[in-house]
Amino acid sequence: MRYIRFGVLSTAKIARTQLIPAMFRAGNAEVVAIASRGSKVHEVAAALQIPKAYESYDDLLKDPDIDAVYIPLPNYLHKEWVCKAADHDKHILCEKPAALHEREAAEMIEYCKEKNVKFIEAFMYQLHPQHERVREIIASGEIGDVKLMKSSHSFYMKDRVTNIRMDKEMGGGSLYDMGCYSIHAACHILQTEPIRAHALAEMDPDTNVDVSTFAHLKMTNGVNVMFDCSFDMANRNEYEIIGTKGTIKVPYAFRPDKNEGGIGLIVVTCDGVSREERIPGDLYRLEVEHFSNYILEDGEPFNTAEETIRNMRAIDACYESIQTGQVINIKQ
């Protein structure tokens, strides 16, 4: 059995609590090194049983025993360290959103192609099998023709002083942090893309960061998509598909791992009669294994470069709409 040997750039919470444990559970990966600026990285490495700890990202990238890196750095640092990782022939799994705008994402992806390394934006939610089941139900015609998709993703942020999500220069904002999921899910589930965007936001008066965003997308197939994302509301991570005959609700759409046992739940309602389907899935392990197989077998990525660029294009349009108050046509 071949393994992909991972290095992790940062001791970010998502790395410590989700991705690194998933690398240990994966059947084709192992984590061999972690890096962070400062001596605390050695404590983290010891606690997580990671063999090597580096006090600089550059030193980790120079390690010849590392095949790929996971990058959970703040959004504004993604391009810099994706390109540096590519310079050292490391394949890259980069946290979402990949960049701060479409042009930056396209430049990163092109650079990785030039350096002949694999790059994937880490939209892990899509690998949970509940979403493939939703697409099967839609294709079966059970809920009729799809007319509308609604999506909500939020949590109430208590600490707004030190949280980097509230720093505009670092790529903070609810649209970057959570709205990106709703946009991606609309394209992934409906197999289409947005052609128009209209959004408005509630901005933090001190940081000028969108703490809540409310948006409407018109898709190429005529379906309407409405989504909201927020640092100012209770925990939600859900979507609903509304058709001419019925509805599909997915209450743990983006973080089914927070449900007991990682169980995804699908609720289908037609003619006032509902049924539930419960679907298990080890979300982050699936992400690590898919990415590792993409490298080992030169297979298909679970999230393509085109999907990454498309998502950033829609995010750009939403921010432009927030700034101008206008409906924005999205160039294809």
From TrEMBL:
Transmembrane segments: none annotated. Residues 4-121 form the Gfo/Idh/MocA-like oxidoreductase N-terminal domain. Pfam families: GFO_IDH_MocA (PF01408), GFO_IDH_MocA_C3 (PF22725). Residues 132-248 form the GFO/IDH/MocA-like oxidoreductase domain. Keywords: Oxidoreductase. It comes from the Bacteria. InterPro entries: Gfo/Idh/MocA-like_OxRdtase_N, Gfo/Idh/MocA_domain, GFO_IDH_MocA-like_dom, NAD(P)-bd_dom_sf. SUPFAM superfamilies: Glyceraldehyde-3-phosphate dehydrogenase-like, C-terminal domain (SSF55347), NAD(P)-binding Rossmann-fold domains (SSF51735). Gene3D superfamilies: Dihydrodipicolinate Reductase, domain 2, NAD(P)-binding Rossmann-like Domain. Belongs to the Gfo/Idh/MocA family. This is Gfo/Idh/MocA family oxidoreductase.
